[in-house]
Amino acid sequence: MFDTLSGSLQKIFKNLRGYGKLNERNIKDAMREVRMALLEADVHYEVVKDFTARVREQCMGADVLDSVTPGQQVVKHIHDELINLLGSNHKEFDLNARPAALLLLGLHGAGKTTTASKLALRWKKEGRKVVLVACDIRRPAAVQQLQVLGKQIGVDVIAPEPGESVPALGRRARKLTEQSGVDVAIYDSGGRFQVDEELVAELKELKQAVDPRNVALVVDAAIGQESVHVAESFHEAVGLTGLILTKLDGDARGGAALSIQHVTGCPILLVGVGERPEDLEPFYPDRMASRILGMGDVVSLVEKAQAVVDQDQMVRMEERLRRNTFDFEDFLIQLEQMEKMGPLENLLEMLPGGAEIPEQAKQQLGADSGKQWGQAKAIIQSMTPQERRNPLLIKGRRRERIARGSGTDVRAVNDLMKRFDQMKRMAKKMKKMEKRLRKARK
Questions:
Q1: Along the 442 residues of the chain, how does pLDDT read in single tens digits?
Q2: Alpha carbons 385 and 441: distance in angstroms, whole number
Q3: Domain assignment present for 361
Q4: Could you tell me if 288 and 316 lie in one domain?
Q5: Domain around 369
Q6: CATH of the domain at 267
């Protein structure tokens, strides 16, 4: 989402680093370019005005003008102000009460119902007892959608009874969750195409019935500045405790993420980065600022890997590689764990310099890697258990059969076998190097 903005800022920083010394004119020119980059990224003009004024004031200080690395000092000040703009510190939901009630608000199409199921899965994995409450009774099939999602993730859904109003459903659900020892109750409220009096009145009554500690607005980041106006309207009418931005994996310019917290004063709690149930990430202002400036977000990348990769399994596979007993069943497990990390183009954005890779190239890399992983899985799954455990059995006719079964050709099977052999040979070389190092130390 921030590729265009990141690219523009990188050019500005490159020019700044070319100056041996900075003066008022250099800084003024740079801030003009920063202002244009932010406006082009659809950041609210008042936010841009305040942001550039604060950065310019700091850049006129002695730490920049007298520094031997003035360009880097300017980058530091922009980084610090971006963190402030995004909310300074990471904020969490208040889940101390039992049951902790969360009222989700949002317009049609923002991804509110999907986000409700993602949150339920997230907290269920943490060992909490979660229940979903279907309060969107006007949108066709909204209740059924939530029930289907709840079934997929193994979470109960409290649905409205015939003729039951939204406030009445809220009161009944509150009583049920208090009696059944639920840890978190997520109320999926009704939406509209725009904020109107009827919606506001319904949400106020529901809020009074439920008395939630958390009132979060799900905002579609792809609609740009309109999302800021939507958040302001909901906050003024109902009162919000936090925001959830969805569709940050899209091609929007990202201005909403940079404007919405500053304008509303409500913290961004989570961001949606995909359609999968796992594609909901905590929002860290400092990490997002680093990504915008092209510095990457290695901490989030490591956390993502730790969350989806089975550490014990990886240790076992590493040991099997060292002993030269690694087979195609191990290889299949490894592929499946890599797929859980998400699209490759999203992972590239978390690496330092990842923002400088052209968007088309990232998408191509992602498509190529996804195709290769899918093809490799199909080939391995077309092998018999004996062939997976003993790859030496896979000769001419077996390769032809595997190619037919996987919908590929013999060349694709040969390529996979070759990559598999290369991996094993590399493991052998590493083992030999370790032995030499141990001897050298003695």
A1: 566 777 778 788 777 776 667 777 878 888 888 888 888 887 888 888 888 888 888 877 766 656 556 667 777 888 888 888 888 788 899 998 888 999 999 888 788 899 999 999 999 999 999 999 999 888 878 899 999 999 999 999 999 999 889 999 999 999 999 999 899 999 998 877 677 788 888 888 999 999 999 999 998 877 767 778 888 888 888 889 999 988 776 655 567 777 888 888 888 899 887 777 778 888 888 888 877 776 555 555 555 555 655 666 666 666 666 666 778 888 787 777 766 666 655 665 555 555 555 555 445 444 455 677 788 889 999 999 999 888 889 888 999 999 999 999 999 999 888 888 877 777 666 666 666 766 665 5
A2: 43
A3: yes
A4: no
A5: 306-441
A6: 3.40.50.300
Question: Are both 278 and 316 inside the same structural domain?
Answer: no
CATH of the domain at 56: 1.20.120.140
Identity (one letter) of the amino acid at 86?
A: L
Structure tokens at 42: 């659809």
* Cα–Cα dist 57/28, whole Å: 10
Buried-state track 118-151, b at ≥16 Cβ within 10 A, e below 16: bbbbbbbeeebbbbbbbbbbeeeebbebbbebbe
Domain membership flag for residue 300: no
For residues 42, 44, 47, 52, the Cα torsion angle rounded to the nearest 10 degrees is 40
**Strands 280-282 and 268-272: what pairing?**
antiparallel
- Best CA proximity match to 90, nearest among 237, 284, 227: 284
Q: pTM value?
A: 0.66
DSSP state of 194: S
* Residue 91 maps to a domain: no
- Residue 124, in any domain of the structure: yes
Contacting residues for 344 by C-beta, under 8 A, at least 6 apart? 362, 365, 366, 369, 370
Instruction: Indicate whether 278 and 328 sit together in one domain.
Output: no
